Amino acid sequence: MDEKTTGFVSFVGSGPGDPELLTLKAVDRLARADAVLFDDLSSGPILGHAGPEADLVGVGKRAGRASPRQHHVSRLLVDYAKSGQRVVRLKSGDSGLFGRLEEELVALSEAGIPYEIIPGVPSAIAAAAQCGIPLTRRLTARRVQFVTGHDVSGALPQDINLDALADPAACTVVFMGKRTFPQLLEALMARGLPGNTPAVLAEAISTPEQQLRRATVTELADQLRKEIGDKPALILYGPLAEMGVGID
Questions:
Q1: 189 is annotated as an active-site residue
Q2: I need a surface site. Which of 71, 86, 237, 247 has the fewest CB within 10 A?
Q3: What DSSP state is assigned to residue 22?
Q4: Which residue ranges make up each domain of the chain?
Q5: Which of residues 140 and 58 earns the better pLDDT score?
Q6: CATH fit for domain 3-118, picks 2.60.40.2310, 3.90.550.10, 3.40.1010.10, 3.90.1720.10
């Protein structure tokens, strides 16, 4: 299939927000793109790598805010590509982690549009780096698990494996979970997770608004019952290392 006449889509993981964490391939695709469809968390200085003539289209989804529907985003991708343009679909973190990548891939495949997927630094990995801690620990944390904290309605998912999430020997990272973490913790403690399990709330990772807070899971749930705030965040809990930098 001729890329010049059919267009081409590059799914680019932008990392957690720091433009210096972009891969060289990501920078190249942004510079050559005719159109960039970007998530909210991929905006700001990262878009400075796009060419001056590129169309910049915000299609991000944020909890509690009006957002474009997924079918509309997929339709935009197809339409831009069918017009023969080089399109970058810029997603925060890594596009394969809670980024609704599959729906957009299906739309492109059904339309016969070629694409590539360029990995980005996952926000969970960046959060651990910013905290100055490892996600795995010899003998005490041999498993890492990622889970979303809300379903399509914003509620705590009802089909998650609570027994696995209560495993005290696993390091768990909860994406988009500030609103539902107190409810989640009640279920986890009922399955044996100790209330003094170490936790970190990592907000706006790698941006000037970054904030890192260390607590126990019980203390963190109490904090989130009182105030959530609007910064994007991850919650890490489990046998986290006691070392760390820049953590309150």
A1: no
A2: 71
A3: S
A4: 3-118, 123-237
A5: 58
A6: 3.40.1010.10
Active site residue 39: yes
Supply the pLDDT for residue 175: 96
Catalytic residue at 61? Answer: yes
**Active-site annotation holder among 34, 94, 176, 178:** 176
Closest CA to 169 of 186, 192, 148, 187: 192
Structure tokens at 183: 């409810």
Q: Please give the Cα distance from 167 to 241 (Å, whole number).
A: 16
* Per-residue pLDDT tens over the stretch 169-207: 999 999 999 999 999 999 999 999 999 999 999 999 999
Asked whether 115 and 65 are in contact (CB, 8 A), the reply is no
Decide: helix, strand or coil at residue 78. Answer: helix
DSSP letter (8 states) at residue 231: S
Q: Tokens representing 100?
A: 């609704």
| pLDDT of res. 1 | 40
Catalytic one among 28, 40, 61, 189? 61
Q: How far apart are CA 78 and CA 166, in angstroms?
A: 42
Class in CATH terms, 123-237: alpha beta
Other CB atoms closer than 10 Å to residue 204's CB: what's the count?
Answer: 18
**Cα 35 from chain centroid?**
22
- The residue from 39, 91, 167, 178 that is catalytic is 39
Note the pLDDT tens digit of each residue in 6-53.
799 999 999 999 999 999 999 999 999 999 999 988 888 999 999 999
